[in-house]
Amino acid sequence: MGVPAAAAPPASGGGSDAEGRQVTEAALFEAFGGVRGMVETVLPGLLFVAIFTVNKDLHVSAIAALAVSLVLCAVRLVRRDTVKHAFSGVFGVAFGVVFAMMTGNAKDFYLPGMLYTLGLALAYLITTLAGVPLIGLILGPVFKENLSWRTRNPGRKKAYAKASWAWGLILLAKCMVLFPLYWWADTTQLGWVLVALKIPPFLLAVYLTWLFLVKAPAPIDVFAEMEAREKAEQAEQERPAAGAAVADRSQEGPRHRR
């Protein structure tokens, strides 16, 4: 997907609320893939369950899902768009296909993705408890603040912690719905519920993240700070040379007068 690059956040404080909202929206759009990223996430699974609902053929359903995922990735490569979301989709579908083929159980197509969701939910919760919320590690580079929020921006660290709690609990609730269905429902029931739960929880988590971050202090642009320090050091180094040149010119004046 052609994802617009996030605008450079203000160094610290300053800037209007409207600018802060635009920066946050752009950064979230870049980090999570936007509309096209959501389509690429949903389409392979939707195609799998739709085909399996009609003909109950695991092989045809799995190959179709993998093929559409590869096509989406190839389109990104041809257009020279960001491919990280497409590649993650290809790997996820490929794991599901291999797992389902190995076990012969069509429901196992969904199991790697469900385990990944559970692991991600736990990662959000555990990193937040450890004082290093995962959403901050993900979005810090996008906002050009890296890990400065950990020690220099406590209000922003608190916002990242709230967002990580939201992501963790939302994904955990999703798992609480899906895993019982994996054991007790058939493949088509599980597949359609999983497709239905792809977008709404994701949008809720992104919205809550946006809500927490637009109310937080502005990110500290560590790259701008580094550039400013480098310019100051360069100016400091050039100052003695400039002073020496002025001194030389002042000494040449009397000599010419003689």
TrEMBL record:
The chain crosses the membrane at residues 58-78, 85-102, 114-143, 164-184, 190-213. Keywords: Membrane, Transmembrane, Transmembrane helix. It holds the Pfam family DUF3159. It comes from the Bacteria. The keyword Plastid does not apply. Residues 249-258 have a biased composition (Basic and acidic residues). Residues 231-258 are annotated as: Disordered. This is DUF3159 domain-containing protein. It comes from Streptomyces noursei (Streptomyces albulus). The lineage of its organism: Bacteria, Bacillati, Actinomycetota, Actinomycetes, Kitasatosporales.
